[in-house]
Amino acid sequence: WPVLRPLPPVLRLSRAAVLLLLAVCLLKPALDRMDSRSFKPRLTVLIDIGPSMQAGDDQGSPRLARAARWLKARRRAIEAFSEPVLYAGSTGARRIAWEELDALKTTPASLDPAASAAEILDDGPPPSRVWLLSDGAFGGDDSLDRALERLKVPVDALGVGPLKVKPARRLISRKPLRP
User: Most buried in the list 73, 117, 154, 175, measured by CB within 10 Å?
Assistant: First the structure.
């Protein structure tokens, strides 16, 4: 019987390797990489630090201070659903930390949304969403439109201003005017 004859060592090792590989294949191993991974979307928060944000609101505090308080009060909730990145915006955007919110000061220049958007995009990975905290007093040009085109993500404008809008006109007298 030829099977019973002794084989050269190289052939015996190769047969053993094939048998071992066959045994492993019959066991049908699976990779244990089925762990779930999730990531939080990057949320960019742009805070307007233009001169109009120094104006007081109907509660007696500057708009910038109220925006900072609002963000700090909701920090835990914001961080639970996103990876927030804070920016102070004027003629551009500079990245700030949560701890710097109380020390923010207004600048003489109004917010330039296009320049701020450019600096946000140059700073790191693109955001999934942008929050703009502003009172809306940042020029009447097409800068906001250019910024929105450049960002290509949803932008939520969170208005910072008085809680109650005071009437612009009042009735002083009910008497008819006489010619």
Answer: 117
